[in-house]
Prior knowledge:
This protein has helices at about 5-10, 15-35, 40-65, 70-95, 105-130, 150-155, 155-180, 185-235.
Amino acid sequence: MPKTYSSNDVLLFIPNLIGYTRVVASLFSFFLMIFAPNQWFMATMSYIYSFAADLFDGMAARRFNQCSAFGGLLDMVTDRCSTLGLLFILYGEYGSPSAPDNKYFGLYRMLFLLLAVLDISSHWCQMYSTASLQIHHKSDEGNVGRFFLVRWYYQCYPFFGYCCVSAEVTYITMYALLHLANGNGGSMAMLKVAVEILWKICIPGCATKQIVNVFQLCSACRAVADHDAQLKSKSD
C-alpha cells in the first residue's frame, strides 16, 4: 500500500532540512557583515556554506527520493535572496563615499543595483513563463524556442555550474578583498593574493552569467507574449 504523506512530512524531508540551514547560514552571514564587520572571515565562510550546501540538498533529494515542489521553491528563493542580500552588502561596502576607491562609488552603486535587478527579473520571468505552462524552468521542454545560450545554459550542466559558481565566487571574493585590504602580516598578504587570483579566474564566468540573464529575460518575455498570442488567436 502506498505511503501517505502529510505536509509536515514534506517540510521535514532531509533536503528541505538542509535548505533551512542554508537560510540560517545566509542570514547569519549578513548579520555579521552588517553588525560585526571585523568578523568578515566567519561571515564569508557562512555564506560559502549556504551556497555550497545547494549541491548537497539536491543530492539528498535524489538519494532519498524526496524531491518536492516545496523543495524546489525553497531552493530557488534561497538562491535568489542570498545573492540579492550579498549584492546589497556590496552596494553598501563599495558604494560608500568612504570606500577605498571612493571616486568610483557612484559607478559601484549602479553596478550592484543593475546586477540585483537583472538577477531577480530574469529568474522571475523564466519561472513565470514556464510555470504558466506547468513546466519546470530548467527542463528541455520549458526552454524550447529560447535563445540558444539559454538552452545551453540549462542543458549543459558544466556550463551551468561554471556560470553560477563563478558569479557567487566573484561577489564573495569582492567582499573578502575589501577587508583583506586592511590586513597586515605575511599570511594576510598571501591570502589576499590567492583571493585576487580566484576573483580574476571567476570574472569571465560571472560576466557570462549576466549575458545569459539578459537573454533569459528577453526569451522568457517573448515566450509569454507567444503564449498570449496563441490564446488570443484561439479565443478570437
